[in-house]
Amino acid sequence: MGTLVNGLDHAYKAILEAAEKLQEVQLVLSVGLSINPDDLRPTPPDAIIVRTAPQLQLLKRAALCITHAGLNTTLEALAQGVPMVAVPIGYDQPGVAARIEYHRVGRSLEIAALTGENMLEAIREVLKNWSYRARARYFQKVIKRTRGLEVAADRIEEAFKTGTIFPPI
């Protein structure tokens, strides 16, 4: 649920409650430094709960990404063709979550109304409806073809080197 805005134990508990009913998936839950993983017990027997995890490596094998709808995680999931369930918390996340829904690459749930039941429903819908993965894979191809992440990184590096935000015209 992000590195800047996390520590919402009720969100993690809703995810764990949903995972308890999903026998066919393995949950890897990264909770950051604000929460002690032991405070989330009881947990599903096969769930892996850690403070940090190698996100890119996990996304390469993931069927679904549960995210706070941060732009970095969203783009990384799409770059791997992985659909999402978004739970925006603040900043630009509600807008990113709205785009996840609009482009049909996942579902979005309100943090204030988040329960294990509606998390389970959203996870099942995204996993069972092939169109979410198909749309995520479409964006994976677009990102690869346009080199969007590379171009963005190049622009940021250039801005740091030159001290300007925009390249010269």
TrEMBL record:
It holds the Pfam family UDPGT. GO terms for molecular function: UDP-glycosyltransferase activity. SUPFAM superfamilies: UDP-Glycosyltransferase/glycogen phosphorylase. Keywords: Glycosyltransferase, Transferase. This is MGT family glycosyltransferase. InterPro entries: UDP-glycosyltransferase (IPR050271), UDP_glucos_trans (IPR002213).
